[in-house]
């Protein structure tokens, strides 16, 4: 889906071949060679805006894609025993990577995870999915979470991010 909002076109006599687009707040800046015709400009704007939208969609999966990924992980690592009612990104979690409410089977992931490696997001999903089976953090919980092969690596990654950002760690555990 192409972006909506203001589009600023910047032409450069030094730019010879490339046309690029980037976000600058609510505005999209398109940079292109100065010598393009108006028709070529419109074609290139449509092309680069579509590319930008595809790139952003890959980097920031939707709630629907996150839900699908959670179901796939539940089947692969938890024998399909964890069935969330919803999985979504939220922007109001600053001290946790994710949260789960077993009563209504909802999972929320912090928007701070966006842009992190997929295997880290997968770990947080598996962690939260496991709460649908085991509410606490006891041995049975960790036995299930550790079915995910990159658990230790992802926990280390998140601990490093948390330490760098000054986020709290509870009892030596990463904030998940």
From TrEMBL:
Entry GO MF terms: hydrolase activity
Record bears the keyword Membrane: no
Keywords: Hydrolase
Region (Disordered): 1-24
Gene3D superfamilies (alphabetical): Metalloproteases ('zincins'), catalytic domain
YgjP-like metallopeptidase domain span: 36-158
Enzyme Commission no: 3.4.24.-
A Pfam family matched in the record: YgjP-like
UniProt entry tagged with the keyword Hydrolase: yes
InterPro entries for the chain: UTP_pyrophosphatase-like, YgjP-like_metallopeptidase
The name this protein goes by in its record: M48 family metallopeptidase
Originating organism: Actinoallomurus acaciae
